From TrEMBL:
Taxon lineage: Bacteria, Pseudomonadati, Pseudomonadota, Betaproteobacteria, Burkholderiales
SUPFAM superfamilies xref list: Dimeric alpha+beta barrel, Winged helix' DNA-binding domain
Domain of life the protein comes from: Bacteria
Protein name: Lrp/AsnC family transcriptional regulator
Species name: Undibacterium arcticum
PROSITE patterns: HTH_ASNC_2
Isomerase keyword on record: no
Keyword set, alphabetical order: DNA-binding, Transcription, Transcription regulation
Amino acid sequence: MKIDAIDLKILTVLQQDGRVSNQDLAEQVFLSPSACLRRVRALEESGMIARYIALLDATAFGLEVDSFVQVTMRRDVEHWHENFTAALQSWPEVVGSYIITGEANYLLRVRARNLKHYSSFVLEKLYKTPGVLDIRSNIVLQTLKDTQMLAPELLMGEAGVNG
């Protein structure tokens, strides 16, 4: 789907406030409410809008430890990838998981209440997973930028923006 400057503005506003009313959204992008709703539905149907969520403040819930963990696997263990990816689905502490390049196989983002909780996660879950060879933890000391928003200039890439 090709998007134009109006679609781009709709996407930007929705990323800032996913609960904005269609009326307010239409006013902000200078469309009639019906035309605005048609465009939003087309963006949803195309998959450009994947879903609407509420972003929670982890620290407000007492999750004080934020860490990035590189996990290196032993390749001589049968089904190491399938077993690891299945196990991490059941770990609520893992809020993000990625297959990465480099020495490690995976990068996990882990949230925990405190260092004791984090230590328990590493020792009782992560290290006990068959095939885990090495774990390298990086504890976040201060967050400088943490966003799920995609900047308009990034959105103008391969999807294409007309006008």
